[in-house]
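Data availability (excerpt). The following record was deposited with the supplementary files.
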Amino acid sequence: MKNRILILTCLFSVLLVTGCRKQPEGKVIARVGETTLTFDDALVHIDTSRRPVDDQIKRYIAQWVNDELINQEAGRKEIQSDRQFQIRIKEASRILANQYFLEQYIYSDTTGIDEKLIQDYFRIHMEEFVVHEDVIKMNIITFDTREKASLFAASVLRGTHWSDAVNSFLEDTSTGVVSNSIGKYSTQRTLFPLELWKVASTLSVKEVSFPVKTSIGYTVIQIVSNIKKGDPAEYSLVQDMVRQRYIIEQRRLRYNELLENLHKIYKVEILYN
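Predicted structure:
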C-alpha cells in the first residue's frame, strides 16, 4: 500500500512538472538546456527561396546553439540586472520605438504622391539627372529570316508607323518574329550583340537600319532618340530614380513638419550652460 502511494505521488509530481512546463509547438530540431528550437522557428530566419534549404537550416542551428549558450551563461551571471545593460536596453527600446513610429505614421504615408507631381519634380530638377554614358532609345525587332526582316524594314521606310508595322506582322503567325521591343533604352554595355550597337550608333533619329544578322536571327532597328554622355536624361529613363528621390524629399518634409508640431505640443527646455 505504501509503495503504491509512493508510486502515485511520484507520478503526480512528474505530471505536475510536465504540465507546468510549456511544450514547444512543432518539431524540435535543437535544444540547449530547457530552451528548444523548432523547425518552424528556424524557417522564419532563412531564405527558403534559396537552395539548398537544408544547408541553411544546419548553419542556422549552429548559430542558434552558440547564441543560446552565450545567452544562458549571461543569464546565469545575471547580466540583465547590470546597470549598463539596463541603460542599453532603454536606449535600444527608444530607438526602435522611434523607428517604428516613423515607419507607421510618416514613411508609409504616400498620400499626395502622384505621377504629375513626380513629373513636375523632374522638370524642376532635370539638370540633376544626367546620363553617365551614351544611351540610345530604339525600336528593335528580330525575324527568323533576312527576307522577312527586309519586308518589315521596307514597310516602315514606306511610311508605316513602327508600332503599326509590328502589329501587322504579329497578326500573321508565319512572319517569324523572334523578339521585339518598342522604346528600349540601351547602352554599349547592355545591347547585345556588339554589332547592333555599331549599327545603331551610326543611325539618325527615325532612321531604319538594314537587317543585321545576329545569333538569333535578323534584326531591324529604328532610332527614337540619342542621349549623349552628360546630357539630361529623359524622364522615362530615370523615372524610378526620380520617384524615389521625390518620396525621400516628401518624407523629409513630413519629418520636419512633425518636429515643428511636436515642439508646440511638448515643453522643451535646454538646460546645458
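Summary of structural features: Residues 33 and 72 are 9 Å apart (CA to CA).
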